[in-house]
Amino acid sequence: MAQIEEQVRVANWMVFLIGIWLILAPFFTWYTEVTSAMWSSIITGALLVVLSLVEALKPSFYLPVSSLYIVIGFWLVLSPLLAGFSDVLSATLVHFGMGIIVLALGIGSIIGMRTQA
Q: 44-95 pLDDT, tens per residue?
């Protein structure tokens, strides 16, 4: 049981780091001129940071927080198409790549904690 809780904790901190990266990515991968991509990255990154801190402070919130990770992961994957910046390769790669990872971490956290119960 403790091993699964530790894996969920590690996944949570990975989401925290992804959130920090998403906040900084527009400035390091040069897509600040594409407003929709920049704000999508900054807002979703900030949401991930806040949610990961909530889950770190209140582990009993793993289910709603991990469910929101999945929603945010889907947004990150689909946002280049939905927000109209799929022609900006750096923004698309950042959003898609981080979205897939956030989706996997959210799903993995839910499955791991459910198998523990």
A: 999 999 999 999 999 888 889 999 999 999 999 999 999 999 999 999 999 9
Taking alpha carbons only, the member of 93, 41, 50 closest to residue 69 is: 50
Alpha-carbon distance of 105 to 110, in angstroms, equals: 9
Report how many domains make up the chain: 1
Three-state DSSP class for residue 33: coil
Which amino acid is present at 32?
A: T
Q: What is the DSSP letter of 34?
A: S
Q: Which amino acid is at 18?
A: I
State the residue range of the domain holding 101: 2-116
pLDDT band at 38 (very low <50, low <70, confident <90, very high): very high
Residue 8 in tokens: 């969920």
Q: What does the alpha-carbon distance between residue 89 and residue 9 come to, in Å, rounded to a whole number? A: 32
Number of residues assigned to the chain = 117
